[in-house]
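seq as requested:
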Amino acid sequence: MRSKITQHPIQQLSSLLLFTFFVLFLLPVLILSAGAYKTSVEAENLNNNLYTASNYITTKFRQHDRLTGGLSQISLSQIQGYPALSFTDDIEGEQYRTWLYLMDGHLKELYTRDSGQMQPDVSMGMRIADLAVFSFEETTEGLYWFTMEDEQGARSRFCLHASHPAAAGFKAQEGE
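struct tokens:
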């Protein structure tokens, strides 16, 4: 005949207490790690938004940092009432324009053919980053200041200087 092994109530209680202590120590660790993860994701998103916008602007600026026909390819303008940074390109005799502007909390880019026949539609712009503020100004010829602020209030301000000869105070030579 088999004998049934019975557990003493103290054994059952010690197993229950061990499990309870495990849960009590595990719970704060999980809460702290979730908080740390949330903080790191928010910081990454914060930095990523401003970094993406500033890197994009810098890249576009450097791509157009030259003279075409004695004129700069970078200008400050407006598109449908929105202040815009404008970059021009001459591709096989056709003029194209890239517009960077802030609309509805988004930094947007719109690339259009510069035919002059119809005004481009700002709603067609491609979203680059989420920003609350995007402003720019040219303080001296070829020196541009950019200010950005994201939705959480983090700000970034930087300066770009055009390196073409007209920005350095020289007159453009024929044939440049």
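The first helix runs from residue 9 to 63.
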